[in-house]
Design goal:
This protein has a domain of 48 residues. It has 69 residues and is of the alpha+beta class.
Length: 69
């Protein structure tokens, strides 16, 4: 049975997730949708899996935090 401290730590980690917008860059950027991740690299990996991107599309992937303006 997990201790109370372990449960609190995992809850804190989940709370740090941010929403990221994902695009594939072409002549015009193609909006794919949003993913939840802790940082930019994790957001890129999540978008590649969630949207089934090929290697070429992954090289052209751009992500930006939703709250960034």
């Amino acid at each position: 049975m997990p201790s109370r401290r372990q449960k609190t730590a995992s809850t804190r980690k989940a709370a740090k997730l941010r929403s990221w917008r994902a695009w594939v860059l072409r002549q015009r950027a193609q909006y794919l949708g949003t993913v939840e991740a802790r940082d930019e690299r994790a957001a890129e990996a999540a978008a590649a899996v969630q949207f089934g991107l090929s290697d070429e599309q992954r090289r052209r992937l751009a992500v930006r935090a939703e709250d960034a303006e």
